[in-house]
Amino acid sequence: MADQEFDTRSFRDALGNFATGVTVVTAKGEDGTLVGVTANSFTSVSMEPPLVLWNLDRSSPSLKVLENASHFCVHILAEAQKDLCMKFAKSGDDKFNGVEYTEGLGGVPMFDGCLAQFECRSVARHDGGDHVIIVGEVERFHNTEGEPLIFFRGQLGDLALIPKAG
Ligand SMILES: Cc1cc2nc3c(=O)[nH]c(=O)nc-3n(C[C@H](O)[C@H](O)[C@H](O)COP(=O)(O)O)c2cc1C
């Protein structure tokens, strides 16, 4: 790739072939500010200790709170939560308007209807180019069953988004 022109559009398209679930990561700032960001960069890291990570754009208005918060919660979205996904995929101060939530560890806002929730203590931040890699140790989690929301080739939908081979 070194002597080829690096085509960012093609790079994005290639990355889009990695089908993922969708999460919303929430946290509470020291001043009480609530933040929530839609993220598909979530992944598991370690079983012992139980670690997960996700990546946040350095230009995010939510960066300051998420980098400094003692805790964050990762919500794995159900297929029925597309509206919630879109709500937290935009910048704004009113993201929690009309969203029912309870408080988890560290006062983190948590909402229902997800397939799983991971309440994490923020344990490390790493340089990830134009993103920050945020690592959390899972202190508590909740798990249910249901249809996942899927992100594939820039589209949101259910599992039928992913074409069958043949
Ligand atoms: C399906 C999907 C996945 C996304 N994944 C990420 C991600 O992993 N990291 C990130 O920083 N932004 C991601 N975004 C974009 C953010 O959700 C978006 O920039 C949002 O405005 C961030 O909130 P903020 O503006 O309050 O920081 C994703 C958006 C969508 C729709």
Write a structural description.
The strands form three sheets. A seven-stranded antiparallel β-sheet has the order 3-2-6-9-10-5-4. Strands 1-11-12 form a three-stranded antiparallel β-sheet, with no helix packed on it. Helix content is 12%, strand content 40%. The chain has a single domain (21-99, 114-153), classed as Pnp Oxidase, Chain A (Roll), CATH 2.30.110.10. The model has no long low-confidence stretch (mean pLDDT 95). It is mainly beta and 166 residues long. Residues 22, 37-41, 54-57, 60-62, 89-91, 151 line the site of flavin mononucleotide.
With helices defined by DSSP (H or I, 4 residues minimum), what is the helix count? 3
Q: In what range is the share of β-strand residues?
A: 35-45%
The domain tally reads: 1
CATH homologous superfamily title: Electron Transport, Fmn-binding Protein, Chain A
Query: What are the low-pLDDT stretches, counting only 5+ consecutive residues below 50?
Result: none
Secondary-structure-based class equals: mainly beta
**End-to-end span in angstroms?**
31 Å
- Second CATH tier, the architecture: Roll
What's the pLDDT, averaged over the residues? Answer: 95
From the alpha carbons, calculate the radius of gyration and give it in angstroms.
16 Å
Write down the CATH class. Answer: Mainly Beta
Q: How would the global form be characterised?
A: globular
Largest sheet: 7 strands, antiparallel
Provide the spatial order of strands within the biggest beta sheet: 3-2-6-9-10-5-4
Percent helix, as a range, is 10-25%
Quaternary structure of the protein: single chain
Heteromolecules bound = flavin mononucleotide
| CATH fold-level assignment | Pnp Oxidase, Chain A
